[in-house]
Specification:
This protein is an all-alpha fold and about 425 residues long. About 65% of the residues lie in helices and about 0% in strands.
Length: about 425
């Protein structure tokens, strides 16, 4: 088993011809767009005011400060356990809990948790608990009035740092690197929160912003009146403020996943990335993020110009419509990583410090069950996730266009749809080493 290698399939795993998958995916996007133009002529999604209320017990638990503090304390304890394991556990990556817990269970698991429960990291974020303990000593937040202008740009920057750490340095899986990241991230985040106030986390904590974005597609959410409800997962996807930096967040996520696929191709490994060093990896990651950004900005601004709308807000306006695409790529790239390598977290948690004779859960001697997800299953999930993500993205973009301009024309949205088709074909090609 390759330690912390993203468990995506190769071209040989695909049970149908790659060309057929690419053409079929592109056709699915165009057909769905045509159907939307014919049958979806007005904005119909209910938005944040819709939904069926959940039982009062659920509402009380969701609104309880004590419950929230308890969850944050539990999360803080788990983070401290992982940090201690990184510093005092087994020196080898293969038997140390910390890299598996950070890169697999937390980073990948954050997506299904947020889809299932909503913005879960905002609720359990242990940094919020630490900030409440420190702010009494630090006094009032002096930069709180400047926070709205900052937008989500800090979150995009911190996510860029994390995905760089995850994808580029050869030492990324060493326990010491994990410990350094956890400590450094906490120190910087708490320092910024003491200056800007607790509202910083909703804009500056990359993991919380990511979880909140994914949580917009959850069936569980809050209405405008504060009630916890069950609703159409698409109903809240495009609501909320399109704040500065939101597009940068989704572009970093898309671009980093594209680089993950690129780095596995023979072309990259025998060409630009042959040195397998930090410089080539950094340049490759930056190039893919820049390419995704350029395509997205061009598509949204051309669509806005055709619709007669001002160009500047367009990338921000449509940023939330890319979230299903981000999720599609994430599921495609990391499904098998979570299903297979994710077992290592549970195995190593049974003896996080590698002490002789310790086996808390009776799993320490287990091996990863490679039959938990077959190659065909992985490949079908990969292709299906990318296609479904893009179809939902086109749907949300059409809905957003109707909200921005009630009588939006078909031609107005074509540039953005073309970009999404290119994302689909390019994403599948990179995923299977095309």
């Amino acid at each position: 088993m390759t330690v912390l290698a993203h468990g995506v399939g190769s071209r040989t795993d695909l049970p149908i011809p790659l060309g057929l998958a690419l053409y079929g995916a592109g056709a699915a996007i165009l057909v769905s767009f045509a159907a939307l133009l014919l049958f979806w002529r007005t904005a119909t999604l209910g938005g944040s005011s819709s939904g069926r209320p959940l039982p009062a017990l659920v509402q009380r638990a969701a609104d309880s400060p004590r419950a929230r503090s308890a969850l944050q304390a539990l999360a803080a304890g788990l983070v401290l356990l992982v940090l201690t394991a990184a510093l005092a556990g087994p020196p080898g990556t293969a038997r140390n809990l910390a890299p598996w817990a950070l890169y697999v269970t937390f980073w990948v698991g954050l997506v299904p948790a947020s889809l299932l429960l909503g913005p879960v990291w905002r609720v359990v974020n242990p940094l919020r608990l630490a900030h409440r303990g420190l702010r009494a000593l630090a006094g009032p937040a002096r930069g709180a009035d400047r926070l709205p202008a900052v937008g989500a740009w800090p979150a995009a920057a911190f996510l860029a740092v994390f995905v760089w750490l995850e994808l580029v340095p050869a030492q990324r899986a060493e326990p010491g690197a994990v410990a350094a990241f956890l400590v450094g991230y906490a120190v910087v985040q708490l320092g910024a929160a003491l200056w800007f106030g607790e509202g910083w986390f909703a804009r500056g904590d990359g993991f919380e912003v990511y979880s909140t974005l994914v949580g917009r597609l959850s069936a569980v959410g809050r209405r405008d009146d504060g009630r916890v409800v069950l609703r159409n997962p698409l109903a809240n996807a495009t609501t909320g403020t399109a704040e500065p930096g939101l597009a940068a967040v989704v572009v970093v996520l898309l671009g980093s996943t594209a680089f993950d696929g690129l780095s596995r191709t023979v072309w990259w490994q025998t060409g630009p990335g042959a040195a397998n060093d930090v410089l080539s990896g950094t340049l490759g990651l930056g190039a893919m993020v820049g390419l995704v950004a350029a395509m997205y900005v061009l598509g949204t601004r051309l669509s806005g110009r055709l619709a007669g709308l001002p160009p500047r807000p367009q990338p921000r306006l449509y940023a939330a419509t890319l979230v299903p695409i981000v999720l599609g790529y994430t599921v495609a790239h990391y499904f098998s990583l979570l299903a297979l390598d994710g077992q290592m977290t549970w195995i190593l948690a049974s003896n996080p410090f590698g002490w002789a004779g310790v086996d808390l859960f009776g799993t320490y001697g287990n091996r990863v069950d490679l039959t938990a997800a077959s190659p065909d299953t992985i490949a079908y999930v990969q292709v299906g996730a990318v296609i479904v993500g893009h179809v939902l993205g086109v749907t949300l973009a059409h809905e957003q266009a109707l909200r921005a301009q009630r009588h939006a024309r078909a031609s107005d949205q074509l540039p953005l749809v073309v970009v999404m088709v290119l994302f689909t074909v390019g994403g599948l090609g990179l995923l299977f080493g095309f």
